[in-house]
Amino acid sequence: MFGLTNPKSHPVTLAIFTSVIAGNIDLLTAATVPLFLLASALGCITADALLVWIVGLHTVRKLCTRAAPWITRGVAFLFFGFAAHSLLHLR
Q1: Is the pTM of this model over 0.70?
Q2: Count of C-beta atoms within a 10 Å radius of residue 8
Q3: pLDDT tens column, 62-84
Q4: Residue 72 near residue 2, CB atoms below 8 Å
Q5: CA gap 15, 65 in Å, rounded
Q6: ∠ at Cα 48 (72, 36), nearest 5°?
């Protein structure tokens, strides 16, 4: 959802992903890091291609233009939700 409405949110998503994987960092070894990086790169390229395709659809552009205020509110709600979730799960 963030990528569809705000491409600059990818660094935020990366930070969240990093915090999620931190609990399993011991699974990353010298042998698995290249595979992990390859899978991450392929996932990023695939997600970006899908994003470009979806955003380019006429129906999506028309819907986003009409619903822009509600989309902005929804994204803000999600950001506040992530913030609240992060605060609730501080160690």
Answers
A1: no
A2: 8
A3: 998 999 999 999 999 999 998 89
A4: no
A5: 29
A6: 115
